[in-house]
């Protein structure tokens, strides 16, 4: 059965960790794209750090010479990373394992990773690779994907998912709105207040599961 594992490693255990020495307030997130070449996890998003400051930090750490700016906005910058094949460490463990990377975020305190394996053996194999590479991995959560969890993707309960989808399909989020809370409530046979609360809880869970970096395996 598919297994999800969340774990942490010290900030300096990952190749990009040295950036935090100069950018202690920064947050990084690996882009979970599927590369079309042999490149492993080639992109990283950097937040809470000015482009000039990131450039200075890269210049101060020769091991990050393969990190180039691709695009930037006022809130976040995207960089392409060329990993050193002789010193990839944790990157190599991820690339060589049968587990898929779901999420990876880093701060000056630690990196948090979430992997999915087809079964528990894939996760166990990944941990063995880390130990062999001398990477200090701390497992924070391990669970399987039950039928209920598959239906509650992104942290939504079935009721929240149904409410959000109906609101979207009926044009509640359009400008101008094509429906009202009362009309949605009538569709569900519940009160207007109950629909509003269901949507708000759904927003919170959806944002927490997609836009907010995971912390301590939660």
List the helices and strands and how they pair.
Elements (H helix, E strand, L loop, with lengths): L2 E8 L16 E4 L12 E5 L3 H10 L6 E6 L3 E6 L8 H7 L3 E7 L3 E8 L2 H13 L5 E7 L2 H5 L6 H12 L11 H8 L3 H19 L8
Antiparallel strand pairs: 1-7, 1-8, 2-3, 2-6, 3-5, 4-5, 6-7
Helix pairs in contact: 2-3, 5-7, 6-7
Question: Can you walk through the features of this model?
Answer:
There is one protein chain. The protein is an alpha+beta fold. It contains 7 helices and 8 strands; from the N terminus they run βββαββαββαβαααα. The chain has helices at 51-60, 90-96, 120-132, 147-151, 158-169, 181-188, 192-210, and strands at residues 3-10, 27-30, 43-47, 67-72, 76-81, 100-106, 110-117, 138-144. The protein has an 8-stranded antiparallel beta sheet with strand order 4-5-3-2-6-7-1-8. β4 and β5 form a beta hairpin. α2 packs antiparallel against α3 and α5 crosses α7. The chain is globular, with a radius of gyration of 21 Å. Residues 214-218 have low confidence and may be disordered.
Secondary structural class: alpha+beta
Broad shape? globular
Biggest pleated-sheet summary: 8 strands, antiparallel
**What percent strand?**
15-25%
Distance between the termini: 21 Å
What is the number of beta strands? 8
Q: What percent of the residues sit in helical stretches (DSSP H or I)?
A: 25-40%
The largest beta-sheet arranges its strands as: 4-5-3-2-6-7-1-8
Number of helices: 7
Mean pLDDT: 81
Q: Order of helices and strands, N to C?
A: EEEHEEHEEHEHHHH
Rg, rounded, reads 21 Å
Unreliably modeled segments: 214-218
């Amino acid at each position: 059965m598919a297994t999800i594992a969340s774990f942490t490693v010290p900030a300096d255990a990952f190749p990009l960790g040295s950036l935090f020495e100069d950018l202690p307030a920064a947050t990084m997130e690996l882009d979970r794209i599927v590369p079309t070449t042999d490149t492993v996890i080639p992109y990283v998003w950097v937040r809470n750090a000015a482009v000039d400051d990131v450039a200075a930090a890269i210049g101060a750490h020769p091991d990050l010479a393969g990190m180039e700016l691709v695009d930037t906005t006022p809130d976040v910058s995207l960089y392409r990373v060329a990993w050193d094949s002789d010193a990839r460490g944790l990157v190599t463990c991820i690339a060589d394992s049968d587990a898929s990377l779901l999420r990876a975020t880093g701060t000056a305190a630690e990196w948090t990773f979430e992997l999915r394996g087809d079964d528990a053996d894939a996760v166990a194999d990944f941990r063995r690779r880390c130990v062999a590479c001398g990477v200090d991995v701390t497992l924070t959560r391990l669970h399987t994907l039950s039928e209920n969890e598959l239906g509650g993707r992104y942290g939504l309960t079935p009721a929240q998912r149904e409410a959000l989808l109906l609101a979207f399909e009926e044009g509640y989020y359009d400008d101008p709105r094509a429906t009202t809370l009362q009309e949605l409530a009538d569709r569900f046979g519940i009160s207007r207040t109950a629909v509003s609360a269901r949507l708000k809880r759904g927003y919170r869970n959806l944002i927490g599961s997609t836009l907010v970096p995971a912390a301590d395996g939660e």
